[in-house]
Specification:
Layout: E1 6-7, H1 15-18, H2 24-35, E2 41-43, E3 49-51, H3 54-63, H4 74-81, E4 94-98, E5 105-110, E6 119-123, E7 129-133, H5 134-137, E8 138-147, E9 150-157, E10 169-177, E11 180-189, E12 198-202, H6 219-231, E13 236-239, H7 281-288, H8 290-301, H9 307-327, H10 331-342, H11 344-354, H12 381-402, E14 407-411, H13 420-424, E15 433-437, E16 447-448, H14 456-461, H15 465-474, E17 480-483, E18 491-496, E19 505-508, H16 511-525, E20 528-531, E21 535-536, H17 539-548, E22 551-555, H18 556-559, E23 573-576, H19 585-589, H20 592-600, H21 605-626, H22 632-645, E24 650-654, H23 685-690, H24 692-706
Parallel strand pairs: 1-21, 4-11, 12-13, 12-24, 13-14, 14-17, 17-20, 20-22, 22-23, 23-24
Antiparallel strand pairs: 2-3, 5-9, 6-7, 6-10, 8-9, 10-11, 15-16, 15-18, 18-19
Length: about 725
C-alpha cells in the first residue's frame, strides 16, 4: 500500500481460543463476528496476540449492516441468520473453477428431490448454452444432513472434467427442479499470464520532466519514456496510479486516494497536440499569450508540481476544445460519443463531477433524496461536456503512449470516501470505517489510509461487478499491473471512524473468488500481475500467489542483511531496490531514513543506534562482496547488476536512484509538509537520453537480463527453488 507496511501476521485462533473465557453474551458476539468474517484477534509483528474490543467488533459489524448495538443483541441476530429462505442454500451464488486445476463443484438438494428430476443449464461467457439432466453432471453423492428439520443431500458436480468443458470466463449455472430454481455465477479462471525474463524503469508521471512540458509529465512524455527504455532493451515503464484525484480545493494529490478507479487523470493530457486546438481559437490564443507562456516557463522550471495550477491551465485549454467537438458533426464527435456509449461509467463520472464532484457517504449523500440520481438542475452542462471530452482524450493519449502495452501500472486498494466510486456503486462499499494497517515496526501507531473498504458480502452477492470493472479498466492499456496491498484479497484491517488505529479489526474476504477474478481478468487482457506483498504477510497469501501465477514484489533493502548482503530473489518475483514509499538508495546509504524515524519518534535513540550499527555492517559487507570502494554510485551499480543477473522474472530500476537522488516521492504517515507526490525529477527526459553513464548502466542491465541465471559460487540459493532460463519475448 502507498503508505507502507502491511502490519500483522496470521490469526492464530482468536474467537476459538478466547470464547471459553468470555461471558455468554460475548461468546454470542464472537460467533456473530466469525459468521461475518470479523476476526477478534491477530498476531502482531511483536509476536503477541492482539484482541479487538467488543466495541470495535460491534462497530465493524454495524458498518457491514448488522444491527448490533450491544453484545446481548448477538443471540437474536444469530438465530435470525440461521434460518435462510427456502432454497437459498442449494447452490452457492458464486463458485470458482480453476482451469488446469479442476475440481468438482458442490450442490445441495432437498431430500425430497432426486437429481434425475432436475435440469442443469450452463450459459457460457460467449453465449453458448449447455443443458442436461442434473443426474448426468453429478460426479458423486456426498453426505446428507438435516437442517431446520429438513433433509438436505449434497452432491459434487463434475464440471470441467466431464462432460462439460469450461473455458475461462464468467458462466452462469442454473438448476431447476420441483420447487427449485437457483442460479450461480461460475468463475472459470486460469493462472495469470507469465512475463518473460526482463526489466523496466520506474518514474512517477508527475515527476517526469521534459523540455516542452506544462509543469508536469504528460501521457505523450510517458510514451517517449517507454520508447527510450525499449530502445535500451527494457520491457516496460512503471509509474504511480494514473487515476483522477481532487485537484480543486482542497487539493488532495495522493494517487492512492483517487476520485475513481474507473477513469484517467486529465492532468496528464497534452493539449498542445490535439486536433481541436485548430478549431478552438480561444484555446490557441490562450496558449500563445504572454501570460501563459511565462506561466508555463515557471511551472516547467519548478522543482515541485503545482497540481492545482497546472490542472487549471490544462482545463482552460481543454474546455474550449470540448465545446468545439460537441459543436461539430464530424468523426471526432462520433468517436467521442461511441467511447461514452461503450463506457457508461464515464457518463456517470462526468455528471458527478459536473454536479460538484464530491459526494458524502451513503446516507449522507446530498443527492440521496433523488433515489441516487443527480437532478438535472444540479448539473453544469459545460462541465459535463468537459469531463466527457477529457476522459476520452486521456484514454486516447494513454493508448497511444503505451503502444504495445509496455506500461506497469499500479492499482490502488482504495478510493476517496467522497469520490465517484462510492456514489456510483454504493452497495460495494462500507462506510463508517477506513482501511488501514495495525501498528508495526515502521508505524508504531498504525496507519489509517482513509478509504472506505469494499463490502465482502455485498461484493459476493452482486457478482463482483465493481471489482471486475476496476480490473478491466486498469488492464486496458497495461502490460503488467501491481495489486496494491495484495493481502487485502484475503483480509483487510478496518478502523472504525473516530477510533485509534490500534483499535481496528481484521475482516476476511472471499479470497478464492477475488483471486479468481484477478486471474481471469489478467488472462483476458494478457496482463501479468504483481502482488504488493511487503511487510508481515501470512504464508498462505504467498502460497496462493504462487498457485495463481502472481509475481511477488521483492525489495532488496528489506531482504539484505550484514550476513547476506546480496540475497537472491525468488524466480516468481519482480525484484527492485526499493519502492516510492521507501528511502532512496543514496538516503539509505547515508542512514537518512534512520535519522528521520528517530526524529519523528518512530524509533528510539537506542533502536536508531542499533539500526545504524547494522547498516554500517551491511555497507562493509556489500562493499567487500562487490569488490568496490565506498562509493555509493559504484555500490548501486553493483546492486543493480546483482538483481539483473539474478533469477527474478522481472527487475525494476528506479530512475531517480541513478543520479543518487535522496528525496523520496512519499513519506508515509506524513502530511503536506513533506511535499508528498509533488517532487519533479532532477533530470529531464532529454538529459537522461543524452547521459552516456545512464545509457551504459541500463544497457548493462539488459545484457545481464538476457543471460540464463547462474548462481555464483558461495551465493545463497533461492529458498523457493527453481532457476529461470533465458526467455523468449514476453507476453503484462
Amino acid at each position: 500500500m502507498s503508505g507502507g507496511m502491511a502490519g500483522a501476521g496470521d490469526d492464530t485462533g482468536g474467537v476459538e481460543d478466547a470464547v471459553g473465557e468470555l461471558r455468554p453474551e460475548l461468546v454470542d458476539l464472537a460467533a456473530l463476528a466469525a459468521r461475518h468474517g470479523v476476526r477478534r484477534s491477530y498476531t502482531g509483528v511483536d509476536g503477541a496476540e492482539h484482541y479487538a474490543s467488543p466495541e470495535t467488533v460491534m462497530a465493524v459489524l454495524r458498518a457491514m449492516g448488522v444491527p448490533v448495538e450491544r453484545p446481548g443483541d448477538a443471540r437474536g441476530l444469530l438465530a435470525a441468520e440461521q434460518a435462510p429462505p427456502p432454497g437459498s442454500g442449494w447452490l452457492p451464488p458464486v463458485q470458482v473453477h480453476w482451469t488446469g486445476r479442476p475440481r468438482p463443484l458442490r450442490i445441495n438438494l432437498p431430500g425430497t428431490v432426486h437429481p434425475r428430476d432436475c435440469w442443469l443449464t450452463v450459459t457460457m461467457d460467449d453465449g453458448q448454452v449447455h443443458r442436461e439432466r442434473l443426474l448426468n453432471a453429478i460426479a458423486r453423492p456426498l453426505s446428507g444432513a438435516t437442517v431446520d428439520g429438513r433433509r438436505v443431500d449434497s452432491y459434487q458436480l463434475g464440471l470441467g472434467t466431464s462432460p462439460i468443458e469450461l473455458p475461462a470466463g464468467y458462466h452462469q449455472l442454473v438448476v431447476e427442479g420441483p420447487g427449485i430454481e437457483v442460479t450461480s455465477l461460475l468463475i472459470a479462471a486460469p493462472r495469470c499470464p507469465q512475463p518473460r525474463r526482463g526489466w523496466g524503469a520506474f518514474l512517477p508521471l508527475h515527476a517526469l520532466r521534459a523540455a516542452d512540458d506544462l509543469g508536469v509529465g504528460s501521457y505523450r512524455h510517458l510514451g517517449q519514456l517507454i520508447e527510450w527504455v525499449g530502445e535500451l532493451g527494457g520491457d516496460f515503464v512503471g509509474t504511480l496510479p494514473l487515476y483522477p484525484t481532487f485537484l480543486d480545493e482542497p487539493v488532495e494529490p495522493s494517487p492512492y486516494l483517487p476520485v475513481t478507479r474507473l477513469g484517467w487523470n486529465e492532468l496528464y493530457v497534452d493539449p498542445t497536440t490535439l486536433p481541436e486546438l485548430a478549431s478552438a481559437p480561444d484555446a490557441a490564443a490562450l496558449l500563445a499569450s504572454d501570460a501563459v507562456v511565462q506561466r508555463i516557463r515557471d511551472a516547467r522550471n519548478s522543482v515541485l508540481v503545482d497540481h492545482a495550477g497546472v490542472m487549471s491551465l490544462v482545463r482552460s485549454l481543454l474546455e474550449p476544445m470540448a465545446e468545439a467537438v460537441f459543436a461539430s458533426e464530424g468523426d471526432r464527435r462520433d468517436q467521442l460519443e461511441a467511447f461514452v456509449a461503450a463506457h457508461p461509467e464515464v457518463a456517470g463520472y462526468a455528471r458527478f463531477r459536473a454536479a460538484g464532484g464530491r459526494a458524502g457517504p451513503v446516507g449522507e449523500d446530498r443527492w440521496a433524496n433523488q433515489g441516487g440520481r443527480i437532478p438535472d438542475e444540479a448539473v453544469d452542462r459545460a462541465t459535463e461536456r468537459y469531463h466527457l471530452y477529457a476522459q476520452w482524450i486521456a484514454d486516447q493519449q494513454l493508448r497511444t503512449a503505451t503502444g504495445d502495452r509496455g506500461l506497469y501500472l499500479d492499482l490502488p486498494i482504495g478510493v476517496h470516501p467522497l469520490g465517484f466510486d462510492p456514489w456510483w456503486e454504493p452497495e460495494a462499499f462500507v462506510h463508517g470505517v477506513h482501511g488501514g494497517a495495525p501498528p508495526d515496526a515502521f508505524h508504531r501507531s498504525g496507519q489509517d489510509w482513509g478509504f472506505p473498504p469494499l463490502h465482502p458480502e455485498r461484493l459476493h452477492q452482486g457478482g463482483y461487478r465493481y471489482l471486475r470493472a476496476c480490473l478491466e479498466h486498469a488492464m486496458r492499456h497495461a502490460g503488467t499491473i501491481r495489486v496494491d496491498h495484495v493481502m487485502g484479497l484475503h483480509r483487510l484491517f478496518w478502523v472504525p471512524e473516530g477510533a485509534e488505529v490500534a483499535d481496528g479489526a481484521y475482516v476476511d474476504y472471499p479470497h478464492e473468488e477475488l483471486r479468481a477474478i484477478v486471474a481471469l481478468e489478467a488472462h483476458r487482457a494478457r496482463v501479468a500481475v504483481v502482488g504488493e506483498d511487503l511487510g508481515t504477510v501470512p504464508k498462505e497469501v504467498r502460497a496462493d500467489m504462487a498457485a495463481d501465477g502472481m509475481l511477488r514484489l521483492w525489495v532488496l533493502q528489506f531482504e539484505a542483511t550484514p550476513e547476506v548482503p546480496l540475497p537472491q530473489p525468488p524466480v516468481a518475483a519482480m525484484a527492485t531496490w526499493g519502492t516510492h514509499d521507501l528511502p532512496r538508495f543514496a538516503a539509505y546509504w547515508d542512514d537518512l531514513d534512520i535519522d528521520e524515524r528517530e526524529g519523528s519518534g518512530d524509533a528510539s535513540r537506542q533502536e536508531a543506534s542499533a539500526e545504524r550499527s547494522m547498516r554500517a555492517r551491511w555497507r562493509r559487507a556489500v562493499v567487500e562482496t562487490l569488490g568496490v570502494g565506498h562509493d555509493p554510485a559504484a555500490v548501486l551499480r553493483g546492486c543493480l547488476d546483482h538483481l539483473a543477473a539474478g533469477p527474478a522474472r522481472q527487475v525494476l530500476v528506479e530512475l531517480e536512484d541513478l543520479w543518487l537522488e535522496r528525496r523520496p516521492q512519499n513519506r508515509p504517515g506524513t502530511g503536506p509538509e513533506s511535499l508528498n507526490w509533488r517532487r519533479r525529477a532532477a533530470r529531464s527526459l532529454e538529459q537522461l537520453r543524452d547521459d552516456p553513464a545512464v545509457r551504459a548502466l541500463l544497457s548493462d542491465v539488459t545484457s545481464r537480463r538476457g543471460d540464463a541465471f547462474e548462481a555464483p559460487a558461495g551465493s545463497v540459493p533461492n529458498p523457493r527453488g527453481g532457476r529461470s532460463t533465458a526467455a523468449a519475448r514476453r507476453e503484462r
